[in-house]
Amino acid sequence: MDTKVQTVTREKLVADMRTVVADTEQLLKAVIGQSGEKLAALQPRIEENLRNAKAKLAEFEQVATEKARVAVDVTDNYAHEHPWRIASVSALVGVAVGLLIGRR
User: Is residue 40 part of a domain?
Assistant: First the structure.
C-alpha cells in the first residue's frame, strides 16, 4: 500500500513538474517577445535552467520507474514463493475488518 502511494505521488510530481516546465517555457516566450534588453539578456540563463530542470526530471522519472519495477518484481516473487502467507494475512485482515464493521 505504501509503495502504491509513493508511486502515485511520484507520478503526480513528474506530471506537475512537466506542467511547470511547459508553463515556464510559454511564459519565457511571451515575456521575451514583449520586453526589453534586460529580459533578452536573461533568456540564455533561463533556457539553460529549463534544460537542466528537464534533464533532472527525466532522470528522476527514470529512477522512479526503475524502483517501481523492482518493487513489483520483488512483490510478485514473494507472492509466488509464499502464497499461503499471503492468503493467511489476507484472511486475518478480512476477519479484523469484519469484526470492526460488525461492532458498529
Answer: yes
Domain assignment present for 98: no
In the chain, the DSSP E strands lie at none
pTM above 0.90, yes or no: no
- State the amino acid at position 21 in one-letter form: V
All three cell numbers of 58, joined, read 527525466
For residues 54 and 48, give the distance between their C-alpha atoms in angstroms, rounded to a whole number. Answer: 10
Q: Which domain holds residue 62?
A: 2-78
Q: Is the pLDDT of residue 76 over 80?
A: yes
Question: Cα(91)–Cα(32) distance, rounded to whole angstroms?
Answer: 63
Burial tier of 42 (Cβ tally within 10 Å: 0-12, 13-18, 19+): middle
Count of domains for the chain = 1
Q: Is residue 102 part of a domain?
A: no
